[in-house]
Predict the structure.
Amino acid sequence: MSMKKNYVVETIRKTQMLELLASGQRLDGRTPEQHRPITLKVGVIQKANGSASVTLGNSEVLAGVKVATGTPFPDTPDKGLLVVNAEILPLSSPYAEPGPPSEDAIELARVVDRGIRESEMVDLTKLCLIPGKTVYTVFVDVNVMNVDGNLFDAMSYAVVAALRSAKMKKFIVKDDKVEATDEMVPIPVEKIPVSVTLARIGESLVVDPNAEEEGAMDMRITITTDDEGNVCASQKGEAAGITPEHVLQAADTSIMVGKEIRKTIIEATK
Amino acid sequence: MEGSRMEPKKKLIDAAGNRLDGRKWDELRPIRLEVGTVKNADGSAYIEWGKNKIMVAVYGPKEVHPKHQVLPDRALLRARYHMAPFSVDDRKNPAPSRREIEISKVTREALVPAVIVEDYPRTAIEVWIEVLQSDGGSRVAGITAASLALADAGINMRDLVVGCSCGIVDGQVVSDLDDTEDKEGQGDMPVAIMPNLNQVTLLQVDGIYSREQFQKAFELAIAKGREIYAMQREALAKKYFGGEAMTVQAEEEVSE
C-alpha cells in the first residue's frame, strides 16, 4: 500500500527534508543512493515449501512458497505456473483494512510478479510434467507484516529468497499419469532479479524511500535488473511525471545498487 | 503481458527488416483520432490504432459520490480502463481483472499530472475508457484518447498526454508493438509523456533489455509520442476550428 494517501507529512518536516536533499542528505542520515539495512531469514515457516522473512528498515514482509500440480494456461501448455500474490495485512499499519485486495495491493503484487517473471528467474519449462495437461504450480504468497515504505523492494527480496530456498516434492510421469515421489528437489531458479525503487522528492531521486519520504514524494519508479545488469521490469507510480533524464539516471542507480543487494541475497540463501 | 509470452515460432522481422505487417522497426501503425464521439459526455474521443478501437468519455467536473472521497483542495480524477468481453480472441469476463485494475491506476497517474486539478476543488472528473477491440498497446491508445476527451470537456490542462509503446522483437528494438509482437516478442515498454513539459507520466517495462536497449526503446517511445501529439492537435483542431489552417500551423509548431 502506498502510504501517500494516509501518511501526512507536516509541512515543516517536508521543508526540512527538501532543504537537506538539496545538499544530498536525508532526514534519517542516509545518502540519496543508500538503502536501509536489509535482513533476510529463510526457512521460517516449516509447512511451506520455502519461506523468507525480510526486513528493509522497519518494513517487514513474510513470503511463503507452496508447490502443487495443476493444469497449465492454454497459451503456455509446456510451462509451469508461477503466481505471486500480496496481502497487506490489517495488522501491518493503522491505515490498512481487511477486505478484498486494494488497488495498491494489486499493483504491488503485479509489479513484483513482473520482475520475477520477466527476468526468467524460474525456468518454467522445467516445471512441465505432461504438456497441456499437468504442470507444477508454484504459488508465492506474501504477507506484509509492518509498513514503513517501499514494500515493492522488500516484497521482491522476500519472493526471491523464498524461491531460492524452496524444496518441492518431485513428481514423475508413469504411464501418462503423474505420481508423487518422496524425493525433495529445489525449484529450478537461475537468475537473481533485484528490484530497486527510487522516489522523486522535488528535484531529488532517493533510493528506498521510507514511509515519511513516500508521504512527501512526488512520484516513484521501480526498476528490476538481472545478474548481467539488464533491465527486466519497471513501473512508474503516483500522480506526477519525471523527466527522461531522471529515468535514465534511475536505471543506472538501480543497476549499481542492485549489484550490492544481490550479494546480500546470495549470502542469505546459500 | 504476463505468462503468455511464447518462444518465437516464426520470424517476426524478415531479412529485409520488414515486420509481419510490412512496417520498418520504427514505424507506427495507422492511427485515426476523432474528438466529440459520445453525445451525452462532457468530452469524448475515439481512437483507432492498428486494430485497437477505443472509446473514451469524460464526465465532470461533477459532484463527488461517495462524499467521503471529496478532496478539499482539488478535483478527484477517476479513470477506468475496461475491455469489452468481445474485444479479445477468447471472451473476457466483463468483471474488472487485476490487469485492468492496475492499468486503470497507471492510466489515472499518467493523466493527473496534465490536469490542473487545483482549479476544481471538491469535484470529480471521470474518465471512462472502453476498449472495444484490443490489438497491443491498448493502454497507451486509451491514454492518448483520454487526454483528448479531457481537452474536449474543456478541463484546464497543462499539456496533452500522449502514449506509445516500444519493445523488443526478434532481439531488436521496435516501435508500436501489435498483438502478435506483444505476445511473441521479448519485451514491451509502454510510455506516456507530456510533450511540451518534457515529463514522462507513464512508464512500465517488461522483457530483458541491456542498458543500451533500454535507453533506445525509451527514447524511441518518446520520439514516436511526439509524432502522435501532432495527430492529437489535428483532431482537436478539426472539431473546434474546422481543420485545415490550424492543422498546418499545429504541425509546424511541433516540428520546431
About this structure: The longest strand of chain A covers residues 134-146. The CA atoms of residues 88 and 144 of chain A lie 5 Å apart. The helical segments of chain A are 11-22, 103-118, 151-165, 211-216, 244-268. Residues 244-268 of chain A form the longest helix (25 residues).
